[in-house]
Amino acid sequence: MESLDIIYLLALVGGTILLITMLGYLQKLILSELEIVLCKEDNPRKYLQMLDSKRMEFLFRKGSLLLLRLNGCLVMEDEREIQNIITDAETVKMRQSEKLLLHQKLLNYFLMNQNREQATHSYQVIIKLLEKEKDEKLKEILEDTRLLYGVYVDKDTGLIPKLLLLSKKQSGKKRGITDYRLAKLYWYTGNEKKAMEHLKNAKENLDGTEWSDLIRQAMEQPEILEQR
Question: What residues contact residue 194 under an 8 Å CB cut-off, 6+ apart?
């Protein structure tokens, strides 16, 4: 290979690396701006307007953009647009990690809104994606998904002993979520005293999180546990 060819190749490789580095930097910068608008400013309309641009199409994969759109629509609880995203996801080529995250978000949304049919669809997609995985973190996600479905859809009070053991191994937000699930299961059994006990435990670990309002509402009106 001639020296000019080597120089050209090195320049090409260097330029590609620089471009990838700049692209990654821009993505992080924009994601940070989007998070501020959606979470701190609580302005999902502005957030979605920011996503609707050619610049975003250039910087992000279609699968990533779908996930970002979904975040805004979930905050707005825009059912029509959420359904549009589900339809788009059927035709967009998505990485497994993107598809998994999409259906995790949809599963939580549909469970909270008592849409059993669509919750079950997302649940089945997640199971299919993960049931043969060997990675410990993915196996943990699979187990948590099964627990979530067992609590919200099957209302399986037989899970109480398992969740009690699990909560002893947990701390912080994870323990708070497990306590909330226990509160729901005890409510299903008619044991309001135990349900309130676990709601109080959940409050200690979930204060200041996105769960705060739900915990407060459930403590004031425990019958919410039947639905949410």
Answer: 182, 183, 186
